[in-house]
Amino acid sequence: MFVLTVDKNRFPLNPTHPARARKFLQQGRAVILRRYPFTIMLKDVESTSDVQKYRLKLDPGSKTTGIAIVADERVIWAAQLHHRGYSIKQSLESRRLLRRGRRNRHTRYRQPRFDNRIRADGWLAPSLQHRVLSTMTWVKRLRQFCPISAISMELVRFDTQLMQNREVSGVLYQQGELAGYEIRQYLLEKWGRQCAYCQKKGVPLEVEHIHPRSKGGSDRVSNLTLACCKCNQKKGNKPIEQFLKKKPELLKGILTAVKSPLKDAAAVNSTRWALYGALKETGLPVEIGTGGRTKFNRTRQQLPKTHWLDAACVGSSTPESLKVLVAKPLTITATGHGTRQMCRTDKYGFPSRYVPRNKFVKGFQTGDIVSAIVTTGKKIGTYVGRIAVRSTGSFNISTANGLVQGISYKYCSRVQGKDGYQYCFS
Fold it and tell me: Cα Rg for the chain, rounded, in angstroms?
């Protein structure tokens, strides 16, 4: 993966090959500006006119968003951004239960005002709005370190009209090169990319009718599932109740899955236009593509199914031959910026301990990435990781080898400040 590079005035330059960046650092011509994403600043170079144009590609998802930077036919940088929408939803539900409990205590000291709850146009639930904001955070951040000239995003996850009525856009669209990709991609997401009958993964899957067509079954998506060749031939035109009469639990699960909506797809569909509008406000040209087009491009390139490779294959701008120069993408996990709760409680809701009023201790705060070089005592060594500050100035450091406790602030130097995200390479 290439190294993001800026000049001495912090204007973005062409990303640098890792070997060349290492040479710049050894010669003293560059310094490390940021660890995650790894960015260097050249000390003897100003902005030049030969900066290449790069395209930022996004594959928005409900849990994970794929990010890739593409130049010509090369994928030079990639990341996978994991959202925290589910934890936000849980926190809001916990707060709602606490507030409901307080209302039931009959201790209201003012008149209730339930007629002032007006939602603005385009309102999204906090768990959904988080997906848009976190994605835009990284779009703006990457634009600071790389000369992005265009953006591509997967806007239409599934062509639902084509699913319900295959003639909606004419026979030419149905019989085009994208025919079947939209429906199959929807089924793969819904059924977990495994056989619905034997739960096998990593085998060729076929589209199968739950209620056989020979007995009146329709071609609607609600009547379709995925099965391996062996299970599909074994079932034949039998009703699913007869085929799975010896597996009542599996039968119940399949019938429940048929009726249940695909909530992850619903989350993507709810936020796609908000994200598209936010990207348009950047002033860069924004290209859009469908999920079927993404899978078609990835299949043509013979690339495995991952979020960041899906991002690299978004839109019609994807070249016929794509050279992937990324071995391991940067995994970014949204952790939030902490909580304003001043009193921690036990599982019953009673106060257990209090939080210090001051967030910073000796210039550090919990979540900072530090490098501690201990020269005396029982813990001599070098430790790099995230810290948990204490009022006494004795910190705990979470390293790759485990937790190290009782490291004085005098040995610590900040590598990167807390920014609400956790990083690793997967």
Answer: 26
Give the position of tokens 């079947």. Answer: 180
CA 419 to chain CA mean position, Å: 16
Fold of the domain built from segment(s) 343-421: SH3 type barrels. (2.30.30)
The answer, yes or no, to whether residue 163 has pLDDT greater than 60, is no
Amino acid identity, position 400? A
Answer for the pair 4, 15: CB distance below 8 angstroms, yes or no.
yes
Q: What is the DSSP string of 164-190?
A: H-TTTT-HHHHTSTTTTHHHHHHHHHH
| pLDDT tens-digit map of 107-119 | 656 666 667 778 8
Whole-prediction pTM value? 0.76
Asked if residue 259 lies in contact with residue 112, where contact means CB atoms within 8 angstroms, the answer is no
Q: Between β-strands 286-290 and 148-156, what pairing exists: parallel, antiparallel or unpaired?
A: parallel
H-helix or E-strand containing 143? helix 126-145
Chain-wide mean pLDDT for the chain? 85
Three-state DSSP at 400 gives: coil
